[in-house]
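Project standup — Tuesday

K.O.: blocked on the structure for the chain from last sprint. Re-posting the sequence here as requested.
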Amino acid sequence: MTRGDAFKLPRKLVRKYKTCDPFELARRMGMIIKFCSDFVKQRGASAIVLGNRVIFINSNLSEQMQRMVCAHELGHLLLHRACYGKEAWVLNHELFDIRDELEYEANVFAANLLIDDAEMFDFLEEGYNVVATASGLGVNVNLLMLKLIEMNKQQGFNFQVSETPERCFMGSIQDSNAQDW
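H.V.: unblocked you, prediction finished:
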């Protein structure tokens, strides 16, 4: 799979399943979601266990963060099948490190699944900046910046994105304070 697939696949899934909820999509696609209370720094992971695709999510995270982690791990399971052996784990110790191509693609997948184009355009057309738009959409600003960057590349838009998303933005989000989004 390519970066273009990471951009297009979420849109196809939303049309087919009529939902952008990563938990619902995973369930409908036969994946298992396990919430883990013993994760310390780990926010999520994905694995194939006994032939089942499994998403592990830190149960101590906020609902917003759990949605983002689920969308990211769903992206790994759908985009990066070649990385999984018969029984394999993808542990994201440097979760959402955008310098790693696989992590970048999983982030692009998550951004395109969680951020509705029409809602995003409504905020931007009203004159909201990127930070306010991300807040209104309930996502981290770095996820929105990734979506805008990829829309520029994939669809020829000319969104002015003043900075590149932080290297490990998911690891630096203060999850206990949703206003930091």
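K.O.: great, moving the ticket to review. The mean pLDDT is 84. The chain has eight helices and four strands.
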